[in-house]
Specification:
The chain is α/β, with parallel strands linked by helices. The chain has helices at residues 16-29, 45-53, 67-78, 103-110, 127-136, 154-167, 192-212, 215-221, 265-274, 305-309, 312-323, 333-338; strands at 2-9, 34-39, 58-60, 83-87, 114-119, 143-151, 170-176, 223-224, 250-255, 260-262, 275-280, 293-296, 298-299, 327-331, 341-343, 350-352, 360-362, 369-377, 380-388, 391-392, 403-405, 411-412, 416-419, 422-425, 427-430. The protein is elongated and about 70 Å long. Residues 9-188 form the CobQ/CobB/MinD/ParA nucleotide binding domain. Catalyzes the ATP-dependent amidation of the two carboxylate groups at positions a and c of cobyrinate, using either L-glutamine or ammonia as the nitrogen source. It comes from Phocaeicola massiliensis B84634 = Timone 84634 = DSM 17679 = JCM 13223. Pathway: Cofactor biosynthesis; adenosylcobalamin biosynthesis; cob(II)yrinate a,c-diamide from sirohydrochlorin (anaerobic route): step 10/10.
């Protein structure tokens, strides 16, 4: 038995992340080992969680992974913790198809209760039917309590407590309206300066949670058996795929710094089964570690284009590695780093990049490309998530080698490029239950 909960909300923008970060830090300050999780494919909130809890956050996503795999990694990472806290995504029941892929589905799958964050801005007793509806909408999704956000005064909170009482849900407290408590733009690299600023915000959120939220009651009502139950309808699904036994342990180089940090925790765990991982920084370093496999994850290379442009020695080493047949997997920002040039803004310099791919990348005219993707390549099926603003200027200069589809089966023109043993594309792949080395099998 241990406290386990999912922090959900009626809508996006209700304050889930602020409350989650504050609660994680408040629990850590109590000396508790708290394991954070994030519902969905987000790779930015997980970094905020990690800062707040000093424990790496893990994604739980029923589109990119099987349900048995989600249960497996929840138990795996939660086992050594005193409390498990999962932050939801969007509104509680918002999924890629009705409730499928939603935070509510994760709550039901893991058998953990929901703490509902409700924005009280411009609302008072009228939140009662909203709370009542969330409590009764789905019998297997348990709303254990409510925390209100953006509460203007104690009299305001009293109306909200009445609403909870009449809806039959525990009121656990609130966060007052605070001008300075606002998460900065997510489109920033997590430099040391940015981390320090985030840490100040997390401390502010924790102080409010400690003062205005009944943490003890929250923990008490969220005690559940651990590990999570295995629900019969999902028991027939295939679990984690075992890698084909290999006698050789690979040397794996992974880029990780403020420009390249969109990384799924379980992907790294699977790479670690293949061999030894060495991290390096394209922003701050000049040397490429000795490697059999190079992984360049996504991130914000456009914010560090000038610094990356100066890493001539590193870029030459990466190009040589690729030309000599080294295995490279580059996702989104990692792919941008492999192009000939990167233009960060209108009228700005086209900074020379590694030049492995005969492509040029630009942020000019940028618009958001977003959504889950299913990828078919050489008989292999992988799933992932596309999230980027940049564009390849002439995307057909190198033919795509794969087909990609949305959750509804509609083909999209998102390319996957291959040059020798370099595989690169915009989609952030999840291979937590797959053998990523099959990408290079003929």
């Amino acid at each position: 038995m241990k406290p386990q909960l999912l922090i959900g909300a009626a809508t996006s923008g209700s304050g889930k992340t602020t409350f989650t970060m504050g609660l994680l830090r408040a629990l850590k300050k109590r000396g508790m080992r708290v394991q954070p999780f994030k519902c969905g494919p987000d790779y930015i909130d997980t970094q905020f969680h990690t800062l707040a809890a000093d424990r790496e956050s893990v994604n739980l996503d029923t589109w990119m992974a099987s349900r048995t795999h989600v249960q497996h990694i929840y138990n795996k990472y939660g086992e050594g913790a005193d409390v498990c806290v999962a932050e939801g995504v969007m509104g509680l029941f918002d999924g890629y198809s009705r409730m499928e892929g939603s935070s509510a589905e994760i709550s039901q799958l893991l058998g953990i209760p929901v703490i509902l964050v409700v924005s009280a801005r411009s609302a008072a007793y009228s939140v009662a039917p909203l709370i009542y509806g969330f409590k009764h909408f789905h019998p297997n999704v348990k709303i254990a309590g409510v925390v209100f956000n953006q509460v203007s005064s104690l009299p305001h909170y009293n109306y909200l407590k009445d609403a909870c009482a009449d809806a039959g849900v525990e009121c656990l407290g609130y966060l007052p309206f605070t001008d300075g408590l606002k998460i900065p733009s997510r489109h920033l690299g997590l430099t040391l300066t940015a981390k320090r600023a985030m840490d100040v915000l997390i401390e502010q959120a924790a102080a409010l949670v400690e003062k205005y939220v009944d943490i003890d009651k929250l923990l008490n009502i969220c005690h559940r058996g651990f590990p999570c139950r295995y629900i019969l309808p999902y028991s027939s699904e295939v679990g984690v795929e075992s890698f084909t036994p290999r006698t050789k342990k690979l040397k794996i180089a992974v880029a990780r710094d403020p420009a390249f940090n969109f990384i799924y925790r379980e992907n790294i765990a699977r790479l670690a089964e293949l061999g030894h991982i060495t991290y390096f920084s394209p922003v701050y370093g000049s040397d490429l570690p000795e490697a059999d496999l190079l992984y360049l994850p996504g991130g914000y290379p456009e914010l560090f284009a000038r610094q990356l442009h100066r890493r001539k020695k590193l870029m030459e080493a990466i190009k040589t590695f690729a030309e000599e047949g080294g295995k490279v997997l580059a996702e989104c920002g990692g792919m941008m780093f492999l192009t000939r040039s990167l233009t960060a803004r209108q009228g700005g310099t086209a900074y020379a990049m590694a030049g492995v791919l005969p492509l040029d990348c630009t942020m000019v005219g940028a618009r958001l490309h977003l959504g889950y993707r299913r990828l078919e390549y050489n008989g292999l099926e992988l799933k992932g998530h596309e999230f980027h603003y940049s564009n390849i200027i002439e995307p057909d200069a190198l033919p795509s080698v794969a087909k990609q589809f949305t959750v509804r089966g509609m083909e999209v023109n998102t390319p996957l490029y291959r040059y020798k043993n370099v595989i690169a594309g915009y989609t952030h792949l999840y291979w937590g239950e797959a053998d990523i080395l099959k990408l290079w099998e003929e």
